[in-house]
Design brief:
The complex is a heterodimer of chains A (110) and B (110). Chain A is mostly beta strands. Chain A has no helices and 11 strands. Chain A starts with a strand and ends with a strand. With 110 residues, chain B is mainly beta. Chain B is built from no helices and 11 strands. In chain B, strands 2, 4, 5, 9, 10 and 11 form a 6-stranded mixed β-sheet that branches. In chain B, strands 1-3-8-7-6 form a 5-stranded antiparallel β-sheet, with no helix packed on it. In chain B, a hairpin with a 4-residue loop joins strand 7 and strand 8. The chains are: A mainly beta (110), B mainly beta (110). The interface between A and B is medium-sized, with 23 and 23 residues.
Amino acid sequence: GGIITQTPKFLIGQEGQKLTLKCQQNFNHDTMYWYRQDSGKGLRLIYYSITENDLQKGDLSEGYDASREKKSSFSLTVTSAQKNEMAVFLCASSRTAEQYFGPGTRLTVL
Amino acid sequence: GQQVQQSPASLVLQEGENAELQCNFSTSLNSMQWFYQRPGGSLVSLFYNPSGTKQSGRLTSTTVIKERRSSLHISSSQTTDSGTYLCAMEGNTGYQNFYFGKGTSLTVIP
C-alpha cells in the first residue's frame, strides 16, 4: 500500500499572487497528475509527469506551471491567482492506468 | 465535446433499493475507472476495469469496451453509500489522457 499527501489542505490567496501546491507519494509510482475540480464541471487535467523531470501539459495547463523534482514529488504553481477563484486541486499517481488520489488542496482567492 | 457522459446526474434511493449508474464514452478507450467521493473528500478508487465484469461486495462494475460504456451496480443500498460516483476513461491517442464524467450524486435515505 501507499499514500499520497498534499499540502496545504487549504490555501487562501490574493488576486495576482503566485501560489504553490505540493504533492508527495510513497507508492513508488512513475506517473503523477494534477487535476482541478470545479463544481459542476468534473475533473480536468492540468499537468502530468511520466518520470522525474518530465512534464506534459493537459487540457487546462494555461495559467499553471509544474515541477517534478523527484520521483516521489510533484508541485503545481498557480502563476497568477484569479479573483474569486474557488476550486479543489487533486494530485494523483499511477504505475499503469489505475490512478490513486490525494486528499486535495482547496483554493480560495479573495 | 464532452468525452464522458454519466447518468443519471442525481439519484435518491430508499435504503435497501438497488441502483444502476451508467457511463458512456464518445471516443475509443483503453481503460476506465470508477471512483467514489464524499462531499469535501477525495476520490477513492472502486474499480479499475478495462473490460468485463468485476465485483466487490455489493458493488459490480461491467465495462464493454466495444460499445464504449460501463455500468456500476449497487445492490441493497445503505445510507453510507451516499456521495458522488465518478467514472473516468483513458483515451487511446498514444499518451496518458484521462477524461472524467461530471458524476452521479447518490442519496440513500433511511
